[in-house]
Amino acid sequence: MSTLTLTNFQITPINAPLGAVVTGLDASQPIKPEVILQLKQTLLEHQILIFKNQNLTDEQFLNFAFHFGSLFVPPDDIPVLASQPGVTPVIIPVSNVDGGYTGTGELTFHSDHKWTPYPSSGSLLYALEIPNEGGDTYWLNLNLAYETLDESIKRRIADLQLITYNPFLNKPNIPRSKYRLDNSIPLISPVFPHPLVRTHPESGKKILYLDYATEVEIVGLDPQEGSELIEQLRSHLHQPRFYYQHKWSVGDIVYWDNQATLHYRQAFDPNQRRVMKRISLAGSRPF
Fold first, then answer.
1. Is 3's pLDDT higher than 60?
2. Which of 14, 140, 158, 227 has the fewest CB atoms within 10 Å, counting from its CB?
3. Of 54, 124, 58, 98, which Cα lies nearest the Cα of 275?
4. Rounded distance, CA 68 to CA 154, Å?
5. pLDDT level of residue 7 (50, 70, 90 thresholds)
6. d(Cα 37, Cα 126) in Å, to the nearest integer?
7. 154 SS3 class
8. In this predicted model, what pLDDT tens digit does every residue of 205-233 receive, in sequence order?
9. Who's near 89: CB < 8 A, 6+ residues apart?
């Protein structure tokens, strides 16, 4: 992999299906326009950017994130992580201490806000404290997952619409199906079908726009047929050749393209502290 040097910092693609590391950039300082543009282009090419050795206040973190887009704000009636009626924090504490969110358990491969009308375009996650082991995050390349499908499957799914049901409306401690099989159960929230094969709004690449475990439904298909198809696609998704495993260091900021990736978190020891902060950026209607 070649290293691109711009002034006093470097962008180095990693030997993985996605990802590039950015070193020598101080995100707390003003950033030149040509550098911002290069970072945006690199994200488009590599789906995730890993900024090393950062030390930012909340205001500096927010100012850095706003180089890449506006803040994601969900509709008032559609809950997301950390939202309360009418209010979603600007910076969300992803932490197992001090009132943070997501706990210590495994989080299956997913992308954020897919059940909303305009899912976020990307997120930045900033590591402040990390456990001694566990808690790694994996990112999965959804364009590569699509491109490696059989041509017959590509034709079959080309024009299908997928509903992703809001996991934050689940009743506590009640398991939810990975596919909505019983259409007689009344919906408790609006739903927003999006293409199962999404086109990236900037690169034009095709994306298999599907989480691994969130409850879904294919519009217009018999539930049994739809669930079998989704199970087949999810089996294809869950392959190491599509993902990168990130071992966190304090001071890392990872910025990922939420339109083109899934992410997964390992479980970790509940007696260990894992403290991070997340900012999500606004997106557009999937097409």
1. no
2. 158
3. 98
4. 32
5. low
6. 21
7. helix
8. 999 999 999 999 999 999 999 999 999 99
9. 82, 83
